[in-house]
């Protein structure tokens, strides 16, 4: 069955030439109607248990919904089922040369879904910047409160001048990549939904890895002077109580707010068992929905990965996600495919260049429980 648009291998080269991710480019070509896009958005938000709000994660999920809308419509028109008990096998995508280019797009859609399911980066980062370089210029505003404060002046007197200076440095982008290798025999008769689950697991690990790097940057800094966080030490070493959470919240200066907190299992268990949150009314969010309560009005995130050396068992990370972290990405996720005929292997390489920058050092605070 013919698709809405005709595709060949040149499709991916066209997308890269325009600087657009292949999935986004496919949807641009298919041109789904707005009601179709909105229906996919609603389903994606429900699937990821995300409120329909203006948060960074909701925006990332809306973009993902748009990206897969064209792919899903192409699958439907071509009679390819990728979900449910009647899901087709991978072999069906290789029956027609016009369907084959959809296979890499399907791989990417499942990996991105896994990244979005596990990564905290959309919740913690304030902005994402696309650049065309392996190095980004770091600019840190180094003005003081005295530089910004209004002054009493006499009539006719000169206004005091404020000079905003900046400290400069560089943020190095690092290459992240993974090679997916599978034999024809293994993948040919595999159902698309089963393959999708394996790919999502890969994406989830990628999301965990990038979150570890983001957490490490937030705590240890981005390599420039003064970017490492200054801990708020517990008053009694090894004791985490409600008052320590209050102190963590108050560590933010005026004008800042603790929007998100990252905590490991041990400390989260202590928090959930505090009398202030065991009360049926206060803890109803956790008891009825499994979602964590929101001490101090922040969104709390359970994090058990040990990939960040600075996020040790005695720390709770708190951020104001409006200005704590920026992500630099060079171009888009690069996807390349290859076939080894002699070994009958299908290989898919995915790589990207990513860098992390602390925007406002006051937007990150840490509670050090064991001092």
Explain what you see:
By secondary structure, the chain is α/β, with parallel strands linked by helices. It has a domain at 126-143 and 166-371: phage-related protein like domain (phage-related protein like fold), CATH 3.90.1690. The protein is built from 13 helices and eleven strands. The protein has helices at 10-17, 22-30, 34-47, 56-78, 102-118, 121-124, 145-148, 184-188, 192-220, 242-250, 265-272, 275-278, 284-289; strands spanning 127-131, 135-141, 166-172, 174-183, 231-233, 260-263, 299-302, 315-319, 325-340, 345-358, 364-368. A five-stranded mixed β-sheet has the order 5-11-8-6-7, sandwiched between helices. Strand 9 (325-340) and strand 10 form a beta hairpin. It starts with 9 loop residues before the first helix and ends with a strand. The mean pLDDT is 85.
Order of helices and strands: HHHHHHEEHEEHHEHEHHHEEEEE
Q: Report the CATH superfamily of the domain at 126-143 and 166-371.
A: phage-related protein like domain
Number of helices: 13
Morphology call? globular
Radius of gyration: 24 Å
Question: How much helicity do the residues have?
Answer: 25-40%
Number of strands: 11
CATH class of the domain at 126-143 and 166-371: Alpha Beta
Low-pLDDT windows of residues:
none
Distance between the termini: 66 Å
Proportion of β residues? Answer: 15-25%
Keywords:
13 helices; 5-stranded mixed sheet; 371 residues; single chain; alpha/beta
Summarize the structure.
The protein is of the alpha/beta class. The chain is built from 13 helices and eleven strands. It has a domain at 126-143 and 166-371: phage-related protein like fold (Alpha-Beta Complex), CATH 3.90.1690.10.
């Amino acid at each position: 069955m013919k698709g809405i648009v005709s595709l060949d291998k040149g499709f991916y080269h066209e997308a890269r030439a325009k600087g657009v991710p292949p999935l986004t480019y496919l949807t641009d070509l298919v041109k789904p109607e707005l009601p179709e896009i909105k229906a996919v958005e609603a389903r994606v938000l429900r699937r990821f248990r995300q409120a329909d709000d203006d948060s960074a994660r909701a925006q990332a999920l809306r973009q993902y919904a748009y990206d897969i809308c064209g792919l899903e419509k192409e699958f439907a028109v071509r009679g390819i089922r990728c979900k449910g008990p009647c899901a087709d096998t991978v072999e069906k995508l290789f029956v027609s040369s016009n369907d084959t280019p959809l296979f890499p797009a399907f791989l990417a859609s499942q990996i991105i879904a896994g990244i979005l399911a596990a990564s905290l980066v959309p919740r913690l980062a304030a902005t994402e910047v696309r650049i065309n370089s392996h190095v980004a210029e770091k600019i840190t505003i180094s003005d003081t409160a005295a530089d910004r404060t209004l002054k009493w002046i006499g009539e006719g007197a000169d206004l005091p001048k404020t000079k905003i200076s900046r400290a400069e440095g560089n943020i190095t982008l690092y290459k992240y990549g993974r090679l997916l290798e599978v034999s024809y025999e293994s993948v040919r008769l595999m159902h698309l939904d089963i393959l999708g689950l394996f790919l999502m697991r890969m994406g989830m690990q990628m999301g965990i890895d990038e979150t570890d790097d983001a957490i490490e940057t937030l705590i240890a800094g981005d390599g420039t002077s003064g970017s490492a966080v200054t801990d708020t030490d517990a008053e009694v070493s090894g004791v985490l109580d409600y008052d320590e959470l209050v102190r963590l919240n108050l560590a933010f200066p005026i004008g800042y707010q603790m929007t998100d907190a990252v905590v490991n299992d041990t400390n989260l268990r202590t928090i959930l068992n505090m009398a202030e949150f065991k009360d049926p009314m206060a803890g109803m969010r956790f008891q009825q929905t499994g979602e964590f309560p929101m001490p101090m009005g922040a969104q709390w995130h359970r994090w058990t990965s040990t990939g960040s050396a600075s996020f040790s068992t005695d720390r709770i990370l708190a951020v104001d996600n409006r200005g704590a972290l920026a992500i630099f990405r060079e171009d888009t996720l690069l996807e390349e495919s290859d076939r080894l005929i002699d070994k009958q292997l299908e290989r898919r390489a995915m790589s990207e260049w990513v860098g992390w920058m602390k925007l406002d050092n006051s937007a990150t605070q840490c509670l050090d429980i064991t001092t």
